[in-house]
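Here is the promised in-class demo. Please do not try to memorize the tokens; focus on the logic of going from shape to residues.
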């Protein structure tokens, strides 16, 4: 458990005003985001069968919350970590065409999360996915999509400023693109998190590309599951967050693996046993569309736009009593 406590913190809004702002941001953003990206809203599962291979295994060490149900006693049901793979199946199943896509409200439990100002065991995000052509599996496609998402977030800043002028946190005017290898080359002595903080402080907002694979040092910048993002065509949208003097990740996204990238990354991750799972067999058989997709944190976006000091101010979750006590003493009200 790690907590950053800003000096003389002022939340600007009361708890009830914050709740109203949360509703406004969530409803407005998803409408504008869906329209700008040509995405339709779909309902999504909160849990999936383990045997399908649909659940996100994150860094490979986190264990999902699981259970058995009365009518499927021989199956293990898992609460999702994210819907990264489910969305690609849904695009195929529901007949989405080229450049059409979906978004959904994803609610997950990540019980192994290390708690801090940004991390909770409860995850709420807009998971989205869009069909692209195989020829569009390029860095240009990725970066153009990132620019569109950044534009919607910037427009939301204006919307929030109009309704809550004393509370809005002002964002940089542009987004900068950089790779994990460029950061390692520039700051070999720093940790990955320190590099993220340094580049975000310099530019205000960055899209950090190529996460998951090995860098020249033989190390990974960060972990990524090997079976949805293509590690050469993915990244995170990061903002420099002055209230806490550190970087804040808003979105993880990428061009999804094709057949070759799936085989290559499963081999590198020593996870080729997954090739027997239904999802992976469908992908290798060419039954799933080529896609780009990701997730945008709902609570984190609210936190960013409202200048909040803790994600618990914009979502209801479970926190250790020691963290609750520290937050209360610092003027941070956890829901």
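The designed amino acids, position by position:
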């Amino acid at each position: 458990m790690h907590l950053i406590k800003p000096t003389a913190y002022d939340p600007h809004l009361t708890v009830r005003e914050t709740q109203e702002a949360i509703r406004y941001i969530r409803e407005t953003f998803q409408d504008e985001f869906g329209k700008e990206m040509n995405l339709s809203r779909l309902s999504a599962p909160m849990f999936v069968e383990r045997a399908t291979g649909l659940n996100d295994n994150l860094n490979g060490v986190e264990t999902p919350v699981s259970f058995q149900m009365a009518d499927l006693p021989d199956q293990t049901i898992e609460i999702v970590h994210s819907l990264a793979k489910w969305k690609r199946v849904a695009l195929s199943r529901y007949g989405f065409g080229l450049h059409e896509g979906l978004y959904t409200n994803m609610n997950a439990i990540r019980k192994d999360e290390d708690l801090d100002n940004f991390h909770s065991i409860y995850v709420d995000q807009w998971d989205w996915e869009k069909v692209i052509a195989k020829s569009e599996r390029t860095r240009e496609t990725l970066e153009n999509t990132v620019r569109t998402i950044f534009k919607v977030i910037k427009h939301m800043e204006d919307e929030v400023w109009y309704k809550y002028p004393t509370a809005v946190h002002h964002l940089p005017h542009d987004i900068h693109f950089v790779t994990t290898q460029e950061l390692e080359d520039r700051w070999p002595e720093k940790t990955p998190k320190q590099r993220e903080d340094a580049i975000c402080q310099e530019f205000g907002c960055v899209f950090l590309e190529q996460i998951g694979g090995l860098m020249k040092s033989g190390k990974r910048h960060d972990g990524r599951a090997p079976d949805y993002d293509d590690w050469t065509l993915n990244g995170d949208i990061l903002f420099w967050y002055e209230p806490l003097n550190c970087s804040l990740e808003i979105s993880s996204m990428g061009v999804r693996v094709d057949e070759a990238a799936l085989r290559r990354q499963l081999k590198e991750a020593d996870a080729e046993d997954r090739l027997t799972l239904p999802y992976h067999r469908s992908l290798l058989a060419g039954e799933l569309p080529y896609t780009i997709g990701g997730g945008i944190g709902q609570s984190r976006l609210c936190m960013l736009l409202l200048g909040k000091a803790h994600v618990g101010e914009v979502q209801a979750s479970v926190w250790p009593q020691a963290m609750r006590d520290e937050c209360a003493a610092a003027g941070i009200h956890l829901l």
